[in-house]
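Re: How this chain folds, sequence and tokenised backbone to follow
Notation: Tokens come from a learned vocabulary of local backbone shapes, not from coordinates.
Start of record: The labelled sequence and token lines come straight after this line.
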Amino acid sequence: MSKVALVTGASSGIGRDLALMLAREGYSVALVARRVEILEKVADDIASIGGRAEVFKADLSMYSDSSNLVRSVVEKLGRIDVLINNAGFAIYGPIDEINDEDIQRIFWVNVISPTILIKEASRYMKKAGGGCIVNIVTLAVYTPIPWLSLYNATKAALKALTDTLRIELSPYGVRVIGVYPGYVDTDFHRNVVLTNSSMKHRWSVRGSSIAPVLRSSEVASEVVKRIKDPGFNGDIVIGARYRLLRWLAHHFSGLVVRAIKNSYINSYIKIQG
């Protein structure tokens, strides 16, 4: 029986590329997202290269979908060897403009659902004597970014979960990998929730000013490489410049915070004034 990988957010971007690359490595892939018609196209692409994929429609902001997902995958595919928590979204705008429903939804999709999936998957992995959990976090957790407060908060929680479970699950042969991408050219940035129309221009300017822009395939390739390496159980930062940014944020946090304040807050105040 081939190994099984569950990939959330598999309809596009990093998730889609991960699914295709894992299928090429011989994994049966459980494709998870809300848009079934797009998942079916991904499944067809996997079938065209001789792989196997099953589609699982799930809204990860819903408890019932999150809690039943791993069991459904195991019932259909027989096991689970790799869990990739890739699904997520961002809200961009002042905290006082974010509605309560979006606050609940971002914590569900970015933190609570991955936690539930890890809880369920780890039970199977511990019994099987090993497995691999991959959490797609973000380089943004190392810097406080105004108007991305909830995205930063949820991803910081996912980072803490990743770091802690890496230790907790290691005696059972379960690896926990954290992935910290910089700016990746995917639908994630096009689908960000904006709190008001004036944020649209600021978001587009922010994205175009960040370099280098990574391809989703670059990120996916590095992740699959590390999944295949049984000795790897740590964090992934893709790109020398992004590794430097993380180092600077860690060792010179005060300077980084001041730079962010000058770049974002002061310019925002000028615009509002």
User: Anything to note?
Assistant: The longest strand covers residues 28-33. The two ends are 64 Å apart (CA to CA). DSSP finds ten helices and nine strands in the chain.
